[in-house]
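User: Let's play a game. I give you a shape written as tokens, and you guess the letters that built it. Ready? Here's round one.
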């Protein structure tokens, strides 16, 4: 059962890679990259379960958190053009 789930996740990962390469807009590519990160997290979890290595679940959770932070950073860069920009209403020090 879990081997079938792993095969399905690998097919999904391949399709997401194709969308990341062929996406017409930057946001399609970003969504595909986020999907790739989620699929990799699930693949790590399934491999850890099949191999009897529960520490893979910890790695998958850390990878998921990094995926979220990376997506937020890229979206902030697309919106402001600078990751150091604090946003509106915040004054910068001279």
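Assistant: Ready! My guess for every position:
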């Amino acid at each position: 059962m879990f081997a079938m789930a792993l095969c399905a996740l690998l097919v999904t990962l391949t399709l997401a890679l194709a969308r990341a390469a062929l996406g017409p807009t930057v946001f399609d590519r970003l969504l595909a990259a986020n999907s790739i990160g989620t699929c990799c997290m699930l693949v790590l979890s399934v491999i850890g379960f099949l191999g009897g290595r529960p520490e893979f679940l910890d790695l998958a959770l850390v990878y998921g958190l990094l995926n979220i932070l990376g997506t937020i950073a890229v979206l902030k860069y697309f919106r402001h053009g600078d990751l150091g920009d604090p946003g509106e209403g915040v004054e910068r020090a001279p």
